[in-house]
Amino acid sequence: MVMFKEELAEKAAAVDALLERYLPEEKGYAKTIFSAMRYSVMAGGKRIRPLLMMETFRYFQGENEKLVEPFMTAIEMIHTYSLIHDDLPAVDNDDYRRGRLTSHKVYGEAMAILAGDALQSYAYEVAAAAAADAAPEDMPRMAQAMKVLTHKPGIYGMVGGQVVDVELTGKPIPEDVLHFIFELKTADMIEAAMMIGAILAGESQETVAQIEKAGLDIGMAFQIQDDILDETGDEAVLGKPVHSDEKNVKTTWVTAYGMEKAVQDVREYSDEAVRILRETGESRHLSNDFLFALIEHMVGRKR
């Protein structure tokens, strides 16, 4: 476990360095927005999505890691924009994220909204530029990756899930709708990360579909664990307020099913994801110990 944590820290630091390379310089008349973008992106974080993308690429023996790097950067920017908007007074009204003040507490609500907008559009600019500049033989894969990157965070994915979540805040949520919210709001971005890794490694549509299912299971386990931590976690360890869902009168997996079932479901979803992943690589004797350790870490985390 100690070795994994050291390796995770090294890989997360490499993602940080990658983000530093791509983020715009803080200069010019609009430098405030560049500062606000950097403030939230470089606030720390687990870098789960870019790591899942690269490690899935490596699992499928992808060769040119430079193809993945712009997409790793883009997905983290998209994830960060969603957090900025989640924290706004009109949504979750949280003052702390990743152990420090949220964007709207530092830059004001208007600039926080613009920082989220800027990160979303800049993420697509980074990925599209990489796709446009790719070698001819890589362009079909880059185009497919771009399609996933634009679809999964959008109205049929993360944003769609967030819409339903916001509309039903303070109201009872039926079980099928709760599943819908979790699948779109959280799981779709994890699916996107892993699918892009597989696509850029040159995997078939059939394999990418299996990876999408594994990503769904990981995303469900991850969000359920998040609900558990909101009930049981330590605010100092989490770096954000606990009981936020209770404050906002939100239905969670724990309130819907109870703590015992929530813990059981985390294990069942994560076990199914691992089974699918191992099955896709079994005939080719594929392996990536870090990828499987990362999945285990995600669903068993305390922060």
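Above is the first protein from milestone M3; the second protein from the same milestone is given next.
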Amino acid sequence: MRKKTDRQPDLWNALPWLSVMALVILMMAAAELLHEKEIIFPEITALAVGYILAKKRAWIVDSKRILILITGCAVLGLLIVLYIPLSLRGQICLAFAVSQLIFLYSGTTLAPFVSAIVLPVILQTKSWIYPVSAFLLTLVVIVLHGLFIRLGIREDEPYVPTAIPTRQEWFDAVLRTVVVSAAACFALKYNVRFVIAPPLLVAFTEFSRPLNPARKRPVKVILLLTACAAAGTLCRLVLTNAAGLPLSVSAGAATLIMMLLVRKTGMYMPPAGAVTILTFLVPDEALVFFPLQVLAGISLLMGITLLMFEPLQKGRA
């Protein structure tokens, strides 16, 4: 075996970070070369943050369930768009309600599949490329996670399914659905649909669970997600729109900034990754105001969590 130098351990530990960068760049490059924006799956960066970058797994889940839940919800979201004859508001409410039902009975705390089902509805995706991309990219994350366990960079953690949902958890899920339905009405009426951007709905699902640690640092959470949205926006505006560089370059730069932000803050929040890459699916006319919509949306949802969910949950204790 080759003798290790002092620099090798640092490079060894940097492998997860480099792999996430490579994954995002390759995803964006494939979307550009094939002219298929449906290949872009923002939630893959959330999975990468929670399953590759974070030293401890972000959710109670295992690899098999991640693949099944992400792929299955991507398919469900597409089917809602294709075959459920409801208004956009109705489709969004249905998609979120279904996601909450799955969340209750999945035996996991994996919230990113909420985005997998809602994203195609908000963007009105009608191509089967979307769930195929979600499946393949999720598989890559799972393979990388397994590789880093074998290399000793990450620890293997046992999976113990969550308990059958209680009446209180059912109440919380219904309340979340009512809140998101009301927010969707506002967002669509005033043409600010990214106030309910799918990664924010993932964050809301996580925040509103009892004893979620993010509640202790609400301002830091809001600033982190807004900063990630701003990073993606600026990279796309400056590097692609102004300088004419490929989206893969601007997405790679935005991902690097996002990873530095989560490391600096110590908050390995999966929605931070998804918000960063969602920037590259936002229409040009809405791009400048995207960070403001994220700021408004996450502030609203965090405020509702602190003012409504936390008192209710403390009252049950």
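Note on the second protein: The CA atoms of residues 283 and 290 lie 10 Å apart.
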